Amino acid sequence: MIKTWILSAGLIAGSAFLATAADAPKYTTKEVMKALHKGDDAVAKKVSKGEGTAADFDLLVLYYTALPLNDPPKGDVKSWQEKTVALLDSAKALKAGKAGALDQYKAAVNCKACHSVHKPD
Ligand code: HEC
Q1: What is the pLDDT of residue 9?
Q2: How far is the CA of 60 from the centre of ligand 1 (A)?
Q3: Whole-number pLDDT of residue 21
């Protein structure tokens, strides 16, 4: 009886741990900015010019997946969710080769629109 209880408590704790690990963001927002947005040769610039490759789209999806899971360092969580989910969706659309995906991405990756609300000074 006691053994069963210990076993099931262990299973519950184990699955809670797994769920947390799966939902944990892999990268901080700073890391995402550095990996995709920073510099003249940034992946985001290349993709915005319409020169993105399949490997670039994979990178976008990989890093942008972390953004909605991170808390915004500043500003409203709802606004952060809308902007970061739009960005991730546009990257997925690029990866899937959907029509209009590039325009969707260019609108979503608007640096100023996001920084003015969510980037600390
Ligand atoms: C969806 C929101 C969002 C978009 C879009 C966005 N950024 Fe950011 N960016 C942030 C936030 C938030 C920070 C601050 C991160 C922190 O301090 O933790 C940041 C920080 C940065 C940093 C500083 C990173 C560091 O080393 O501290 C750079 C550089 C940067 N962004 C470049 C860009 C560029 C260039 C674009 C447009 C191509 C862009 N970002 C688009 C949210 C965004």
Answers
A1: 54
A2: 14
A3: 55
Among 93, 23, 83, which Cα is nearest to 60's? 93
Q: Which amino acid is at 111?
A: C
Structure tokens at 53: 């490759």
CA distance 31 to 38: 10
Interval 51-88: pLDDT, tens? 999 999 999 999 999 999 999 999 999 999 999 999 99
Residue 94 near residue 52 (C-beta atoms within 8 A):
yes
Q: For a ligand 1 pocket test, name from 59, 110, 119 the mutation site with the most ligand atoms within 8 angstroms of its C-beta.
A: 119
Least confident stretch, 14-18, 102-106, 111-115 = 14-18
> Ligand 1 center to residue 36 CA distance, Å?
9
CA dist 57 and 94 (Å) reads 6
Ligand 1, atom 18, residue with closest C-alpha = 30
